[in-house]
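INFO  loader      accepted 1 record
INFO  loader      residues=162
INFO  predictor   begin
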Amino acid sequence: MNDEIDVPNVRVIDAEGENHGVISLEDALEIADEAGLDLVEVSPQVSPPVCKVLDYGKFKYEQQKKANEARKKQKIIEVKEIKMRPGIDEHDYQVKMRNVRKFIDNGDKVKMTIRFRGREMAHQELGLRVLTRVREEMEEDIKVEQMPRTEGRLMVMIIAPK
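INFO  predictor   done
INFO  writer      dumping tokens
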């Protein structure tokens, strides 16, 4: 801004938005001084750079406000975990599925975990059947990010909203 601009010619837009075209830096600083405002380089990468005549403090404040607004609208995606057993009863399954739907509707990813204990390890197809049922019931609302895979005594599948 002002004296920190180090190019000989600049394209100037004044406080009312009127384009003055390409003029020398001294003339641009003079226009800004007459208006009682600052000369701020808004597009330094073009040739010649574009400078605007404006109140620098107000400009910085509005940029900060825009950045804060963008941060507010940003959605942080969390990974929620739902734990089940291979022999899960129907009512328990429905309760878990209600939670899965709620998480997916909120835009969160869900890590579905089936835990095997004791001899259940010999019948991993039961756990796979539960995860397949989840995938089929939620097919239109989700995409599977990680297909079911066994990690020790756990079988894990990660789903995300479409």
